[in-house]
Amino acid sequence: MKPEYKRVLLKLSGEALAAGADGILNHDFLGEVASVIKQCCDDGIQVGIIVGAGNIWRGRQGNDMNRARADHMGMLATAINSLALQDAFEHKGLKAHVMTAVPMETFAEPYTVRDAVAYLEKGEVVIFGCGLGAPFFSTDTAAVLRAAEIEADVVLMAKNIDGVYTADPAKDPTAKRLDEITYKEILANELKALDMTATTFCMENDITLYAFALSDPKNIHRVIMGEKIGTVIHK
Q1: 102-113 core/surface letters (b: 16 or more CB in 10 A; e: else)
Q2: Which DSSP state fits 68?
Q3: CA–CA distance, 97 with 135 (Å, rounded to integer)
């Protein structure tokens, strides 16, 4: 079977990477994710990744902290997750680069579009850390912007929920999962599929996005191969 996409931007939920572990990361689960990403690369798919940091810190947890400082802590937390992913990939024999939006050369490379694309074209994974390097912007927004910059064919949102629902399934037992939805419908119905900035950016730049569960890491490969999993979001 031929892959549906050549170059993808994968957004991984930080909370999903914890996967019931006592600490902030489930290393066995990270290994499963790494195995799937290696399979994707072996199939000729170019993979860029942004990882969230909900397993460590979210800016809104800062309560009465300065918002920018709280978000800076979140950026640092994404760097921790990025390094953990890099290590997991290297254990599978897959070359991976962590590129950060803020300088931290001791741990990672500075992000440039040119270098990121060059790595991808060589079949190497690129992990984008520190979001956009600016407070007030989520890693969802960072994911769709990086996808546009590297000219990814699709954004894959692998989270701890299996798609977009008509309402919050944790609060509304009648909520139904949708097979597809437009960005305009997400905005009109105030659905929490991804943040408003990311939603508007995708709509204006005609970016296709799949939202699906990371509980089974093989879903990543299944979606790339064209299986109908989760929810497709489009213009």
Answers
A1: bebeeebbebee
A2: H
A3: 23
Using CA atoms, how far apart are residues 218 and 235, in angstroms rounded to an integer?
A: 27
The average pLDDT across 121-139 equals 96
Quick check: 167 and 174 in contact, CB under 8 A? yes
Cβ of 1: how many Cβ atoms within 10 Å? 7
Beta pairing partners, 143: none
Which positions ≥6 away from 96 have C-beta within 8 Å? 85, 86, 89, 90, 124, 125, 126, 127
Q: How confident is the model at residue 61, as a pLDDT?
A: 82
List the structure tokens of 172: 């509304």
- 178 and 163 in contact (C-beta within 8 Å)? yes
| Nearest-angstrom CA–CA distance, 75 and 58 | 9
